Amino acid sequence: TLSICNRGVSTTFRIAVRPAGATIANEHYIVYDNYVNAGDTVFLTLGITLATTDVVTVYAGTANTSFSLFGSEIT
């Protein structure tokens, strides 16, 4: 589950999954310029399986946005 917490004015956010830490490209985005209202939190539970080398990259239109990612590691 990924939480996007907006502590400021309304803004947009982006999320990309980069396999093996690849350079970010259009095909890596799973969310692009989605909207989160001021003072709101968005929770995304997507069921994505990641390798240990994959990188989740996030972006927000303002500095007052927090991203937190939670999951389970299977060994």
What is the share of helical residues? under 10%
What is the tally of helical segments?
0
How can the largest sheet be summarized?
Answer: 3 strands, antiparallel
- Give the helix/strand class: mainly beta
Strand content: over 45%
Which overall shape is indicated by the principal axes computed on the Cα atoms?
Answer: globular
Strand order of the largest sheet: 4-1-6
Average residue-wise pLDDT? 96
Name the helix and strand elements from N-terminus to C-terminus, one letter apiece: EEEEEE
Distance between the termini: 19 Å
Query: What's the Cα radius of gyration?
Result: 13 Å
Low-confidence stretches: none
The tally of beta strands, per DSSP, is: 6
Annotation keywords:
75 residues, mainly beta, 3-stranded antiparallel beta sheet, 6 strands, 0% helix
List the helices and strands and how they pair.
Blueprint: E1 2-6, E2 11-18, E3 29-36, E4 41-44, E5 55-60, E6 65-69
Antiparallel strand pairs: 1-4, 1-6, 2-3, 2-5
